[in-house]
Amino acid sequence: MGELDSIRTGRQSVLLLHAHLVFVTKYRHPVFSDVHLRRMEEVVQNVCEDFECELVEFNGESNHVHLLVNFPPKVALSKLVDSLKSVSPRRMRREFPERVEHYWRAHRLWVGSYFAGSVGGAPISVLRQYIEAQDRPV
User: What Gene Ontology molecular function terms does this protein carry (predicted)?
Assistant: First the structure.
């Protein structure tokens, strides 16, 4: 899908809103292998769809993930992040119980903070290449 296909139109607006999100695991524990990252991408995709957002790109390493999200103006980015950071650990914990030792207090996979950057200065293609270039663990 090209950038022009991602443009949202309303009665009085034409919008192209992207955010680059980064979530880091608690204590930077190396939680994810490639299998875990593939499943995490599916979980994140489902949450984004619930918010009528598009997950444009996803990747990560053993202790963090990057997301590039196209979102409508009615979505408060903080609400989307809250949902992503609460749903993903529950699903991953249920599906990968052997990884539970990496969860702080049984439920905390992510640190409390996160990075959210509006995307507009650099072309989306450059940001996509950056996220694609993350070294996935084996």
Answer: DNA binding; transposase activity
